[in-house]
Every structure is written in structure tokens, then in C-alpha cells.
């Protein structure tokens, strides 16, 4: 997509608006499958939480992807998108036993990361296949909020609890068909990931009826020019060799599974906003846009970087701006960014807006959530309408305050 096409989309569907490039999603999917072409059985389960629009899910299904879900609602969304139960894995954290049972009843592959829940489920449903999420106690990933494999993480069953885990399995006679880990997002060092994989392989040897090993994901994408990214090709070559060697030792061809989210959709996304005002203070020039952390919270939540450019004036003279939102709290998207000269009414593009942007959006300040558009086959397709005031109030229930409380006479 070029600047002209993006500007046309803002004219047609309004601002702000999310735009996703289907071709980029397809390229990333092919890149991942090509990196692991040396594995006989490979399964890619797209992490729905990154971007859950049903049209995006259907497009990924057309590429051959399954899905990774973390809530029963995501399971239902996947089924609505046409995925079969066999193409869905359910990897929640801290949910009720009844929610896990609901997913299992639908025939979904469940993944459990809690000894207490595992024992309860195994006692009631010993024949239902279960995957176990292991915490390898390996710190991988960027921000601490997205590093989930370390010793203090709430995710997974500790490798130090394996004896207890095996005792539960022996007592319940439950069916363990998979083993899983997820170290965190924004993996910078593949050697750390490979080290964690060795821990998972050693753990897997303790289970005799496995069908798959799931390595989660967390592959880092570049956020700016020259940025570090996960070397997926090198990882594919090295991990494939380790996996194939393990399968030979295990005596069975297992499936190698991954759950990429950000890797598949982040770079496909553009978030387009319009400049409401340019405000000069004693030390800063603010570009104030028609959005805020209600639509793009990652910079404020994680300190994440999104490149910002002015697609209305792509060849103008560069100046320094702090790009901020319209929320009545500090919502700075970027400080002192070098951007081509900005005027009121210009359209600014935020890159890498495909993952955890719309999916984390809210109605804070009673603002509407924007429209979503998918660029597919050189054409813009509206895949979510912009919200209206009716969407804000449709589930609110008004109380009648005109009635008076009747006095009760005490005799």
C-alpha cells in the first residue's frame, strides 16, 4: 500500500482507522513455514489475541493456519470463522475449570498450566487429551510484562514441580498428548530459546504418549530501521535439527507446533490518524491527533515503539514533534520524533499496528473504536464498522429515578 491508497482509505472510512495488508500476513506465514520446512509435521496456530477480526482469521485459515485461543470467546470466534475443533488449541491462564471443560466438550485441544486444575480435570475427564504448559524458568523476551517463562511468572507449571505433575498423571490415568512452553514475546537471542527447548525436550521424555510439542512463539519483529529481530531462518534450521533428533530418540514422528501472533500480523498494520492541532510550547511542538491510548495503548503500557510518518507530506522538511492523543491523561505516542512538517488536517501513520492495537482498544472517555480495513487483492475491504453512540449505550440499563420511596407508617 502506498500513501495515496492509505489517504483514500481515510477519506472513505474516516479517521482514525486501522488498515491491514493481507499480503504481508501471507509473506510472514510463508516465511515461518519455510524456516521449518525440514520438519515433517509442522503446525502453525495463530494467536488470536493479537488481532481477532473474523476476516483476518478466515484469511489465515485459507493459508493453512490453525489458531491458539486464550478464552472461550476466542474459541467461539474461531469456530465462527470456520476452524474445526482439531485446528484450535485452548491455552488459558487462571480461568475456571468450567471454562476449560466447556472448551474440551467442543472437542478443542486444551492446554493446562496449573497443577490443581490439572488434577481436578484429570479426575473428572481422564480420557480427554490434555497438553501441559511447562515453565522452563528461562527469561526471554523484551519488556517484563511480556516475558512469561521466568521463575516468578504466573504462567506454566514449574519444571521443579515435575515429580508432583507425574504423580497427578499416574493417579488420574489421564491422557497427556502434548507439552508446551512459551518464554515470552520479543525474543532477541535465539540461543536462549534453544536452551529452553532443551529443557522442554528433557521434560518431554517423561511422557510416553505425546503427539506434539508446542514451543509457543514470541518472535520479535523490527519496529524501526536497523532494529533487531528474531532470526527466524537460523532458529528454524537449528531447532528443526534438534526436534528431528529428539523424534528419532523418542521413537515417533511428533508434530512441531508454534503459536505466532505478532510475527504474523504486526507489520501488516497501519493505524491512520488525523492531526487536530499543532501546539507550540516553550520547549516542545506537539502534534495532537484524533486518537489516544484508547486506540493504541502499547506505547504507554509497554513503552513500545511505533514509527510515525506524515503521509500527507511525505517529502516535506523534517522537524521534531511529540505526537500526543486527545485523552485527558498523558498519552504520548512518541517524543521528539523527526517527522516531515506537520499541519493541521494531515494524516499520520503509525506502523506495526497489526498486533495488540485494536484488540486492546477501549471506549475510554466514551470514544468510539475505529473501523478496520483489510487491503486484499489491491482493494480496500471494510472488515469492521466504526462504532456509533448506539454502541456505547446499547448494553447500559437506565434506572427510573422519578419514583419515590413510599413511607412506611409504624404503629
From TrEMBL:
<feature type="binding site">
    <location>
        <position position="302"/>
    </location>
    <ligand>
        <name>substrate</name>
    </ligand>
</feature>
<feature type="binding site">
    <location>
        <position position="218"/>
    </location>
    <ligand>
        <name>pyridoxal 5'-phosphate</name>
    </ligand>
</feature>
<dbReference type="InterPro" id="IPR000183">
    <property type="entry name" value="Orn/DAP/Arg_de-COase"/>
</dbReference>
<keyword id="KW-0028">Amino-acid biosynthesis</keyword>
<comment type="function">
    <text>Specifically catalyzes the decarboxylation of meso-diaminopimelate (meso-DAP) to L-lysine.</text>
</comment>
<keyword id="KW-0456">Lyase</keyword>
<comment type="similarity">
    <text>Belongs to the Orn/Lys/Arg decarboxylase class-II family. LysA subfamily.</text>
</comment>
<dbReference type="InterPro" id="IPR029066">
    <property type="entry name" value="PLP-binding_barrel"/>
</dbReference>
<dbReference type="Pfam" id="PF02784">
    <property type="entry name" value="Orn_Arg_deC_N"/>
</dbReference>
<keyword id="KW-0663">Pyridoxal phosphate</keyword>
<feature type="binding site">
    <location>
        <position position="356"/>
    </location>
    <ligand>
        <name>substrate</name>
    </ligand>
</feature>
<dbReference type="InterPro" id="IPR022653">
    <property type="entry name" value="De-COase2_pyr-phos_BS"/>
</dbReference>
<feature type="binding site">
    <location>
        <position position="298"/>
    </location>
    <ligand>
        <name>substrate</name>
    </ligand>
</feature>
<keyword id="KW-0210">Decarboxylase</keyword>
<comment type="pathway">
    <text>Amino-acid biosynthesis; L-lysine biosynthesis via DAP pathway; L-lysine from DL-2,6-diaminopimelate: step 1/1.</text>
</comment>
<dbReference type="InterPro" id="IPR022644">
    <property type="entry name" value="De-COase2_N"/>
</dbReference>
<dbReference type="Pfam" id="PF00278">
    <property type="entry name" value="Orn_DAP_Arg_deC"/>
</dbReference>
<feature type="domain" description="Orn/DAP/Arg decarboxylase 2 N-terminal">
    <location>
        <begin position="24"/>
        <end position="266"/>
    </location>
</feature>
<dbReference type="InterPro" id="IPR009006">
    <property type="entry name" value="Ala_racemase/Decarboxylase_C"/>
</dbReference>
<protein>
    <recommendedName>
        <fullName>Diaminopimelate decarboxylase</fullName>
        <ecNumber>4.1.1.20</ecNumber>
    </recommendedName>
</protein>
<feature type="binding site">
    <location>
        <position position="356"/>
    </location>
    <ligand>
        <name>pyridoxal 5'-phosphate</name>
    </ligand>
</feature>
<feature type="binding site">
    <location>
        <position position="329"/>
    </location>
    <ligand>
        <name>substrate</name>
    </ligand>
</feature>
<comment type="subunit">
    <text>Homodimer.</text>
</comment>
<dbReference type="InterPro" id="IPR002986">
    <property type="entry name" value="DAP_deCOOHase_LysA"/>
</dbReference>
<feature type="domain" description="Orn/DAP/Arg decarboxylase 2 C-terminal">
    <location>
        <begin position="18"/>
        <end position="354"/>
    </location>
</feature>
<keyword id="KW-0457">Lysine biosynthesis</keyword>
<dbReference type="InterPro" id="IPR022643">
    <property type="entry name" value="De-COase2_C"/>
</dbReference>
<feature type="modified residue" description="N6-(pyridoxal phosphate)lysine">
    <location>
        <position position="49"/>
    </location>
</feature>
